[in-house]
Amino acid sequence: MTEPTAPTASATSAAPHLRRLLDLLADDAPAEALGAVSSRARAAGVSAADLAEVERATATALRIRGSLRQHRRRELQLTALFDTAGDLAASRDLDDVLKAIVRRARMLLGTDTAYLTLPDEEAGDTYMRVTDGSVSVVFQRLRLELGEGLGGLVAQTARPYATHDYRTDDRFRHTRNINAGVLDEGLVAILGVPLLLGSSRGGTGKVIGVLFAADRAPRVFSPDEVALLCSLAAHAAIAIDTARALADTRSALDGLAAANAELAEANAAVRAHSAAMRRAEESHDRLTDLVLRGRDVKDVAAAVAGLLGSPLTIHDPGGRPLAAVRPDGVAFAADSMDAGWLAETAEESRTGARAVHRDGRWICAVLAGRELMARLVLHRREPLDDSDRRLFERASVVTGLLLLLRRTVAETENRVRGELITDLLTDSDRDPAGLVERGRRLGIDLDRPHLLLLADGGARGRLAPAAMRYLFGGDLRGVSAEHHGSVVLLITTDDRGAETDDRGAAIDDRGADPGDVARAAAAQLGQLVQAPVTVAAAGPARGVRELAAAYGEAVRCLSAMRVLGRTGQGACVEELGFLGVVLGNGRNVDGFVSATLGPLLEYDAQRGTHLVRTLGAYFGSGGSLVRAKDELHVHVNTVVQRLERVQVLLGHDWNEPGRALELQLALRLHQLKE
Q1: Residues near 586 by Cβ (< 8 Å), separated by ≥ 6?
Q2: What are phi and psi of 16, to 5 degrees?
Q3: How far is CA 193 from CA 121, 162, 280, 283, in A?
Q4: CA distance 58 to 63
Q5: CB count, 10 Å around CB of 576?
Q6: pLDDT band at residue 443, thresholds of 50, 70 and 90?
Q7: Cα distance between residue 161 and residue 230, in whole Å
Q8: How many whole angstroms separate alpha carbon 92 and alpha carbon 659?
Q9: Across 397-422, average pLDDT
Q10: How many C-beta atoms surround the C-beta of residue 257 within 10 A?
Q11: Which of 44, 114, 391, 408 gives 12 a disulfide partner, CB atoms 3.0 to 4.6 angstroms apart?
Q12: Cα–Cα distance between 167 and 22 in angstroms, integer?
């Protein structure tokens, strides 16, 4: 008998290669350098098991590198946007303002060209005011009648529009001169957003121009790119209005110089206007500084409340408060506002592109493109003058930028953390200590108690983003991930694991038991996806194995809710009655079904009969042989013969009340299992 062969001296540890991956990540090395680590490990003679670990670590490193690069790209875009806001605020010449707008639009979106059109009120048409990256004289001299082309559609609807191929898009009216200019410039993909300012007497926002970004090849503009250009357009509209206001001020000063009789009154008006402009500029700089310093929406609320001298609250789309601050900077507990009233006033603000006054409060919608992200509510009955109103509206733009940045960061972090949850539920026994350590590095303490929610429903692809928004918008401490077609939410609870309610159910850090949390999640997620969402809760559980077991319990609870017709609701196992007790954690469901229906299941498997199905039809029809034979589509004598065989296999007492209850429960559990 030969002795086991000892590892050869040439076998190499995987540790240096794993450290190499970390060094490359820290140095922001290219993807090729990360991918080469596996090849070097293979060439160095690393064992098959360690080589597999190195390859998995390489794949994880590549995903982390991609997430980090995307995050840095978003930060660069937002920084460039804030730099643009500063440049526009500092410029006083209208031509310089317009050139800066178009140049930054082309830079931020990385397009071949960018341009801006303004209306000519005297001629009654629209003309090409500024271009950047254009090579065609025909295109640069292009004039458009109102309502023509993509720009006409944007100006008429006051909404952004994008086309990946202008030549084949029939959503807007093509004309010969526009097509000739676009063809001569070679443009294919075009994105246009309106420059909105103020409101007209009809209550709709006034379009003072259209900002475009275009490529000479087909391109699909992402929602983030549309939102980015809309944010730039919002700053641009304010800057254009400021430049025009300053030009009007200079004209007024020139006229007043010739009117000595009105000089004193004119000087007072100019001083007031200048003071308002200085206050507006200082306020805008202060808000922009908050964004650049990475502050929170609560800091924006405190700044605006202090500047306007009134309490201010910020609410999410569902009406829940995100921040509430008094003029002295002290936070207070704000109640949730009526979602219907808030939605109605916010829609009026969105449509008019202005703040609106209702019931002693000023409301302004916080938008990212066309998406409603929040509402600013200023608790003030007195009217706002034009400068204060503009300050309030600018605060909504800054709040939108902060929320968009916060969501981007949260999405990136949630994707990385979601991989941990997937590994936890897929193979928890493989490396429990490693999973706990990974969780700590990602800010998730798996040894603390967590509630595990399993959500299902809604349109495919919409539930996972909605779950992330639910955690993000409600300031819940947790993480979400897709797993086997459903969405898993892991919510951290307080360490009061021994505290229970009057039913003995564990209470989370907000005083709600798992069933209450599941119902709240089902309602919020259903509202976000506009479709019924069913949520099963399990826990609190701590540790890798308990969390994996809680997931299994949530799966069984979700299956039971479907069978019981509780789609679109939330519940935990303890709330499902006797069926929930049987399905609960630690119950031997398979053993119960086998012990109760085992003879029938074995008989059907061996002979291809349908005794289990017949027994289910019999109980389901209330013991009626006629209704049972109709459901089974057989003769009544066949039903009688099958029930006689059931009696032989199960005993004479199979139809007694107590035994019948066990059989019906086992049949229901067997149905769940199938």
Answers
A1: none
A2: -60, -35
A3: 20, 9, 25, 26
A4: 9
A5: 22
A6: low
A7: 11
A8: 89
A9: 66
A10: 10
A11: 44
A12: 49
The span from the CA of 531 to the CA of 353, in Å, is 29
Helix 611-620 vs helix 657-673: angle between axes, to the nearest 10 degrees?
Answer: 120
- Amino acid at residue number 350: R
Helix axes 514-529, 463-473, angle to 10 degrees: 120
Selection from 473, 461, 446, 466 nearest residue 535 by Cα: 466
* Residue matched to tokens 């004193």: 264
The answer to whether the beta carbons of residues 164 and 177 sit under 8 Å apart is no
In 10 A of CB 173, how many CB atoms?
13
Q: How confident is the model at residue 511 (pLDDT cuts 50, 70, 90)?
A: very low
Question: Hey, what's the torsion of the CAs at 175, 181, 182, 186, to 10 degrees?
Answer: 150
- The residues pairing with 368 across neighbouring beta strands, listed in sequence order, are 371
DSSP state of 121: T
Distance between CA atoms of 159 and 172, rounded to whole angstroms?
13
Is residue 294's pLDDT more than 70?
Answer: no
Write the pLDDT tens digit of every residue in 231-260.
Answer: 878 877 877 777 777 777 777 666 655 555
| Cα 418–Cα 529–Cα 348 angle in degrees, nearest 5 | 125
Q: Which residues are registered as beta bridge partners of 571?
A: 536
Give yes or no for a contact between 167 and 184, defined as CB atoms under 8 angstroms apart: no
Phi-psi region of 384 (alpha: psi -120 to 50; beta: other; left: phi over 0): beta
Lowest-pLDDT choice from 186-200, 419-433, 501-515: 501-515
Closest by CA position to 553, among listed 540, 569, 568: 540
User: CA-CA distances (angstroms) from residue 418 to 324, 410, 520?
Assistant: 31, 12, 22
What pTM was computed for the model? Answer: 0.38
Residues 6+ apart with CB under 8 A from 45: 10, 11, 12
pLDDT for 55 beyond 90? no
**424: pLDDT strictly greater than 60:** yes
pLDDT in tens, 492-504: 876 433 333 333 3
Distance in angstroms (rounded) separating the CA atoms of residues 457 and 460: 8
